[in-house]
Design goal:
Elements lengths: L2 H12 L5 H16 L15 E10 L4 E7 L4 E3 L1 E4 L6 H13 L4 E2 L6 E6 L8 E10 L13 E7 L1 H6 L8 H9 L3 H4 L13 H4 L9
Helix pairs in contact: 1-2
Length: 215
């Protein structure tokens, strides 16, 4: 097994599922990773399928609101994120996507994913399978963000009650992610930092650097 694939396999194996759905996705993903080294998108829009994706879920810890983007392609409100490059660590991909898409160095709390999904895509590039690792970042909603990628119709913060009232607008698994975040794993996800305050000048220093696993 390629060393960068082995690292992804270790991340997935260490993930504690929140429910039977995530347990099934984790078991399927481990079998997939054991069967091939061809896990990154090489050719747009979807070759190979499945391929690896990193979600970066930006949360304001003060009120648990979530920053989502109105994705033109997917036609849904989604966390920022994108395809993992060849031999890139998924956590580095998530940090890179936050910078590239939102123009910010959000506080990167944990290099281990908080959630895993295996889903068939919708929208313009529908018909392939994304294996998505979800990472949690922190940012204050009173600080600016921009559409640095040009891929979004809108960017906005969502309160939890708004999300509960608008299920069809979001990733179908987003509610499950939030329940996991708020449940037994929330203390683990948020344990490493003082989330009540994080000075803006510290963002660049604390943001994980991009690195390659294969040198």
């Amino acid at each position: 097994m390629r060393s960068s694939v082995r690292s992804v396999h270790q991340l997935v194996a260490a993930l504690e599922p929140a429910d039977e759905h995530e347990a099934a996705d984790r078991d399927w993903t481990l079998r997939w990773l054991a069967s091939t080294d061809d896990i990154w998108r090489r050719v747009k829009p979807a070759t190979p399928s499945p391929h690896l994706v990193s979600y970066a879920v930006v949360v304001d810890p003060a009120d648990s609101s979530v920053l989502l983007v109105d994705h033109v392609n997917a036609r849904r409100w989604l966390p920022t994120g994108g395809h993992v490059e060849v031999d890139e660590h998924p956590a580095d991909a998530a940090a890179r996507e936050v910078r590239e898409e939102l123009g910010i160095d959000a506080l990167f709390n944990d290099r281990e994913p908080a959630f895993l999904t295996v889903t068939d895509t919708v929208g313009i590039d529908n018909g392939h399978t994304d294996v998505s690792l979800w990472f949690v970042f922190a940012w204050r909603r009173d600080l600016p963000v921009v559409d640095a990628s040009g891929e979004f119709a809108e960017i906005r913060w969502w309160d939890r009650d708004e999300i509960a009232d608008g299920q069809g607008q979001f990733d179908p698994q987003f509610g499950r992610f939030l329940r996991k975040l708020d449940g037994r794993t929330r203390d683990r996800v948020f344990r490493r930092t003082e989330f009540t305050a994080f000075p803006q000048e510290r963002h660049a220093e604390l943001s994980a650097p991009i690195r390659r696993l294969e040198e």
